[in-house]
Amino acid sequence: QGLLWMLQHQGDPRRPWKAIKIDALTTSHHVGWADVDGDGKKELINAPLIGPQALAPRYEDRVPLVYYRIPKDWTSEWKRETIDDQLTGVLHRLRPVHWDGGKREQILTAGFDGIVLHQASGTGDKLRWENKLLARGHEEAPPRAGASDVRLGHLNKRRFLAAVEPWHGNEVVVYTEDAAGRWQRRVIFSELVEGHEVALGDFNGNGRDDIVAGDRGKGASVHVFYAQDDRGEKWDHHVIDRGGMAASGCATADLNADGRVDIVCIGAATSNLKWYENVAPARR
Questions:
Q1: What is the pLDDT of residue 17?
Q2: Domain with 213 in it: what CATH number?
């Protein structure tokens, strides 16, 4: 059962926290926060993994992407509202993004359907969603279909998408936009054993986001791809912590405020959490 909970401390975060039940779906796999209506308040986004009738290996069913406005009283009802009810198969990841600037945030999802952009217009009860397929991802029969994760990055002024494909797949993929607004697919690496997520960060301070991809499979490692141009055509591949990190997820941030972006990964089969400190010369 896909139970969704909010945990709230009672004044002292070192003491036991109060658990507030928000909802129960067939599954609740990935959640995030996004200000979808631009009012300065975040909404809670919930991406179930599969629909109620889905069965392995093809998981043939519709899977809903939903959201909740935060009630004034957290212990009261959280109303479930639909973003998209036409997604199919596995819905693996959601990523809040600022797609076109402005106060509103949009949502990218990755799953069997590929990479989908979800954009809201209007406010309150008149909020409406437009759901646009950007790319189909890896085109093969499920479960080797679509995308496992997606991130929005920038090569100086040019935006791009980085993805792991297909679901739990072997490919690291970069998408760049052509003059007609179509997303062109480029596989930059195809030797992951079990890819799961991607993260982005400008590790060398050149204005280009670099890519981190974890591998949960045999020979677990963290792969870093350094952007070599603003077109997204050339990438320099390095492996860090070979065999030491079966990364289910990675995040990037300047953890020690030294002007360099670091990497943090959490390992599944390796059962560990590591900080990879960036010791390259800082560019401020």
A1: 97
A2: 2.130.10.10
